[in-house]
Amino acid sequence: MIDLYTWFTPNGRKVSIMLEEISMEYEVHPIAIGNGEQNDPDFLKIGPNNKIPVIVDRDNGLSLMESGVILQYLAEKSGQLAPTDEVGRWKMQEWLMFQMASVGPMLGQVHTFVRYGEGKNEEASERYLNEGKRIYRVMDKQLSDNAYFLGDDYSIVDIAVFPWVGRFDWQTIDLNDYENVKRWYLNIADRPAVKRGWKVPENDQPMPMP
Ligand SMILES: N[C@@H](CCC(=O)N[C@@H](CS)C(=O)NCC(=O)O)C(=O)O
Question: What is the DSSP string of 6-72?
Protein backbone atom coordinates (compact mmCIF):
# COMPACT_ATOMS: atom_id res chain seq x y z
CA MET A 1 0.00 0.00 0.00
CA ILE A 2 1.34 3.39 -1.07
CA ASP A 3 0.44 6.76 0.43
CA LEU A 4 0.53 9.33 -2.37
CA TYR A 5 0.85 13.04 -1.57
CA THR A 6 -0.03 14.86 -4.74
CA TRP A 7 -1.91 17.52 -6.67
CA PHE A 8 -3.31 17.61 -10.22
CA THR A 9 -0.17 18.91 -11.90
CA PRO A 10 2.18 17.29 -14.45
CA ASN A 11 4.60 15.94 -11.84
CA GLY A 12 1.81 14.72 -9.60
CA ARG A 13 -0.02 13.00 -12.45
CA LYS A 14 3.07 10.97 -13.38
CA VAL A 15 2.75 9.02 -10.16
CA SER A 16 -1.03 8.56 -10.10
CA ILE A 17 -0.89 7.32 -13.71
CA MET A 18 1.91 4.89 -12.77
CA LEU A 19 0.01 3.54 -9.77
CA GLU A 20 -3.07 3.04 -11.94
CA GLU A 21 -1.03 1.31 -14.64
CA ILE A 22 0.54 -1.19 -12.25
CA SER A 23 -2.70 -1.62 -10.26
CA MET A 24 -0.96 -0.97 -6.96
CA GLU A 25 -3.18 -0.05 -4.03
CA TYR A 26 -2.76 3.57 -2.94
CA GLU A 27 -4.32 6.22 -0.78
CA VAL A 28 -4.38 9.80 -2.05
CA HIS A 29 -3.49 12.72 0.23
CA PRO A 30 -4.19 15.96 -1.67
CA ILE A 31 -1.61 18.71 -1.11
CA ALA A 32 -3.15 21.94 -2.41
CA ILE A 33 -0.01 23.70 -3.62
CA GLY A 34 -1.96 26.86 -4.48
CA ASN A 35 -2.79 27.14 -0.76
CA GLY A 36 0.81 26.51 0.34
CA GLU A 37 0.16 23.07 1.86
CA GLN A 38 3.57 21.93 0.54
CA ASN A 39 5.13 24.16 3.22
CA ASP A 40 3.33 22.47 6.09
CA PRO A 41 5.90 21.16 8.65
CA ASP A 42 4.32 17.68 8.64
CA PHE A 43 4.59 17.47 4.84
CA LEU A 44 8.20 18.70 4.93
CA LYS A 45 9.17 15.65 7.03
CA ILE A 46 8.57 13.48 3.93
CA GLY A 47 8.89 16.13 1.19
CA PRO A 48 11.81 18.35 2.27
CA ASN A 49 11.89 20.16 -1.11
CA ASN A 50 8.40 21.71 -0.61
CA LYS A 51 7.06 19.99 -3.71
CA ILE A 52 4.73 17.20 -4.69
CA PRO A 53 4.71 14.32 -5.51
CA VAL A 54 5.86 12.30 -2.51
CA ILE A 55 5.11 8.68 -1.67
CA VAL A 56 5.37 6.63 1.48
CA ASP A 57 5.47 2.85 1.11
CA ARG A 58 3.63 1.34 4.08
CA ASP A 59 5.41 -2.00 3.51
CA ASN A 60 8.80 -0.63 4.57
CA GLY A 61 8.20 2.96 5.77
CA LEU A 62 10.30 4.42 2.93
CA SER A 63 9.38 7.97 1.89
CA LEU A 64 10.49 9.31 -1.49
CA MET A 65 10.30 12.69 -3.20
CA GLU A 66 11.26 13.39 -6.87
CA SER A 67 8.95 11.92 -9.46
CA GLY A 68 11.74 10.30 -11.52
CA VAL A 69 12.92 8.30 -8.53
CA ILE A 70 9.36 7.43 -7.50
CA LEU A 71 8.62 6.05 -10.98
CA GLN A 72 11.74 3.89 -10.87
CA TYR A 73 10.93 2.66 -7.37
CA LEU A 74 7.41 1.66 -8.38
CA ALA A 75 8.67 -0.01 -11.58
CA GLU A 76 11.12 -2.08 -9.56
CA LYS A 77 8.62 -2.92 -6.83
CA SER A 78 6.01 -4.06 -9.36
CA GLY A 79 8.39 -5.55 -11.92
CA GLN A 80 6.57 -3.54 -14.61
CA LEU A 81 7.14 -0.74 -17.15
CA ALA A 82 10.94 -0.62 -17.13
CA PRO A 83 13.45 -2.59 -19.22
CA THR A 84 15.52 -5.15 -17.38
CA ASP A 85 18.42 -5.64 -19.79
CA GLU A 86 21.55 -3.52 -19.36
CA VAL A 87 21.27 -1.47 -22.58
CA GLY A 88 17.55 -0.92 -22.04
CA ARG A 89 18.11 0.26 -18.48
CA TRP A 90 20.68 2.84 -19.57
CA LYS A 91 18.47 4.11 -22.40
CA MET A 92 15.70 4.44 -19.82
CA GLN A 93 18.01 6.52 -17.60
CA GLU A 94 18.98 8.68 -20.58
CA TRP A 95 15.40 9.57 -21.55
CA LEU A 96 14.16 9.82 -17.98
CA MET A 97 16.94 12.31 -17.20
CA PHE A 98 15.99 14.20 -20.39
CA GLN A 99 12.46 14.45 -19.03
CA MET A 100 13.56 15.51 -15.55
CA ALA A 101 16.22 17.98 -16.73
CA SER A 102 14.64 19.43 -19.88
CA VAL A 103 10.99 18.60 -20.54
CA GLY A 104 9.72 19.37 -17.03
CA PRO A 105 11.83 22.40 -16.05
CA MET A 106 11.69 24.14 -19.45
CA LEU A 107 7.99 23.57 -20.11
CA GLY A 108 7.40 24.64 -16.50
CA GLN A 109 9.03 27.97 -17.40
CA VAL A 110 6.78 28.18 -20.46
CA HIS A 111 3.78 27.83 -18.13
CA THR A 112 5.17 30.58 -15.90
CA PHE A 113 6.02 33.15 -18.56
CA VAL A 114 3.76 32.34 -21.52
CA ARG A 115 0.58 31.38 -19.66
CA TYR A 116 0.56 32.93 -16.19
CA GLY A 117 2.78 35.92 -16.90
CA GLU A 118 1.48 36.63 -20.40
CA GLY A 119 2.79 39.97 -21.68
CA LYS A 120 4.94 40.69 -18.60
CA ASN A 121 8.34 39.54 -19.85
CA GLU A 122 8.65 39.12 -23.60
CA GLU A 123 12.32 38.09 -23.49
CA ALA A 124 11.68 35.24 -21.05
CA SER A 125 8.53 34.14 -22.92
CA GLU A 126 10.41 33.97 -26.20
CA ARG A 127 13.44 32.24 -24.71
CA TYR A 128 11.46 29.49 -22.97
CA LEU A 129 8.95 29.00 -25.78
CA ASN A 130 11.83 28.58 -28.26
CA GLU A 131 13.48 26.08 -25.94
CA GLY A 132 10.13 24.33 -25.46
CA LYS A 133 9.69 24.03 -29.24
CA ARG A 134 13.22 22.66 -29.57
CA ILE A 135 12.37 20.01 -26.96
CA TYR A 136 9.20 19.08 -28.89
CA ARG A 137 11.37 18.63 -32.00
CA VAL A 138 13.73 16.32 -30.07
CA MET A 139 10.74 14.28 -28.88
CA ASP A 140 9.23 14.20 -32.36
CA LYS A 141 12.46 12.81 -33.80
CA GLN A 142 12.78 10.14 -31.11
CA LEU A 143 9.17 9.09 -31.72
CA SER A 144 9.54 9.06 -35.52
CA ASP A 145 11.11 5.57 -35.48
CA ASN A 146 9.66 4.42 -32.19
CA ALA A 147 6.12 3.80 -30.97
CA TYR A 148 7.27 4.84 -27.49
CA PHE A 149 10.31 6.66 -26.11
CA LEU A 150 12.21 3.42 -25.56
CA GLY A 151 11.07 1.66 -28.71
CA ASP A 152 8.28 -0.89 -28.91
CA ASP A 153 7.42 -0.94 -25.23
CA TYR A 154 5.46 1.56 -23.16
CA SER A 155 7.51 2.52 -20.09
CA ILE A 156 7.93 4.93 -17.18
CA VAL A 157 9.59 7.37 -19.62
CA ASP A 158 6.29 7.75 -21.48
CA ILE A 159 4.50 8.19 -18.17
CA ALA A 160 7.01 10.88 -17.13
CA VAL A 161 6.61 12.87 -20.36
CA PHE A 162 2.89 12.46 -20.99
CA PRO A 163 1.45 14.89 -18.40
CA TRP A 164 3.82 17.63 -19.61
CA VAL A 165 2.73 17.23 -23.22
CA GLY A 166 -0.78 17.14 -21.73
CA ARG A 167 -0.43 20.87 -21.17
CA PHE A 168 0.34 21.67 -24.83
CA ASP A 169 -2.63 24.03 -24.83
CA TRP A 170 -1.15 26.09 -21.97
CA GLN A 171 2.17 26.08 -23.81
CA THR A 172 0.57 27.46 -27.03
CA ILE A 173 2.04 24.41 -28.79
CA ASP A 174 0.12 23.08 -31.79
CA LEU A 175 0.56 19.30 -31.68
CA ASN A 176 -0.22 19.19 -35.41
CA ASP A 177 3.29 20.60 -35.91
CA TYR A 178 4.75 17.49 -34.22
CA GLU A 179 2.96 14.59 -35.85
CA ASN A 180 4.89 11.81 -34.09
CA VAL A 181 4.34 13.38 -30.68
CA LYS A 182 0.67 13.78 -31.58
CA ARG A 183 0.30 10.09 -32.56
CA TRP A 184 2.09 9.02 -29.35
CA TYR A 185 -0.03 11.40 -27.23
CA LEU A 186 -3.36 10.19 -28.65
CA ASN A 187 -2.30 6.58 -28.14
CA ILE A 188 -1.40 7.11 -24.48
CA ALA A 189 -4.37 9.38 -23.76
CA ASP A 190 -6.60 6.46 -24.73
CA ARG A 191 -5.27 4.15 -22.00
CA PRO A 192 -7.86 3.62 -19.24
CA ALA A 193 -5.21 3.84 -16.49
CA VAL A 194 -4.00 7.17 -17.86
CA LYS A 195 -7.55 8.52 -17.88
CA ARG A 196 -7.99 7.45 -14.24
CA GLY A 197 -4.61 8.82 -13.13
CA TRP A 198 -5.32 12.19 -14.77
CA LYS A 199 -8.29 12.65 -12.40
CA VAL A 200 -6.16 12.29 -9.22
CA PRO A 201 -6.75 14.06 -6.88
CA GLU A 202 -10.34 14.57 -7.99
CA ASN A 203 -10.44 17.43 -10.51
CA ASP A 204 -12.51 18.56 -13.45
CA GLN A 205 -9.63 19.46 -15.81
CA PRO A 206 -10.29 17.76 -19.14
CA MET A 207 -7.34 16.10 -20.87
CA PRO A 208 -6.75 18.41 -23.84
CA MET A 209 -7.14 16.86 -27.28
CA PRO A 210 -5.37 18.16 -30.38
N1 LIG B 1 11.73 17.65 -9.68
C2 LIG B 1 10.49 17.53 -8.96
C3 LIG B 1 9.62 18.72 -9.29
C4 LIG B 1 8.31 18.69 -8.50
C5 LIG B 1 7.51 19.94 -8.74
O6 LIG B 1 7.98 20.92 -9.35
N7 LIG B 1 6.28 19.94 -8.21
C8 LIG B 1 5.42 21.10 -8.33
C9 LIG B 1 4.07 20.73 -8.91
S10 LIG B 1 4.23 20.08 -10.56
C11 LIG B 1 5.19 21.68 -6.95
O12 LIG B 1 4.99 20.96 -6.00
N13 LIG B 1 5.24 23.02 -6.82
C14 LIG B 1 4.98 23.66 -5.59
C15 LIG B 1 5.98 24.75 -5.28
O16 LIG B 1 6.97 24.88 -6.05
O17 LIG B 1 5.79 25.47 -4.32
C18 LIG B 1 9.78 16.22 -9.33
O19 LIG B 1 9.89 15.82 -10.49
O20 LIG B 1 9.15 15.59 -8.46
Answer: E-SSHHHHHHHHHHHHTT--EEEEE--GGGTGGG-HHHHTT-TTS-S-EEEETTT--EEESHHHHHH
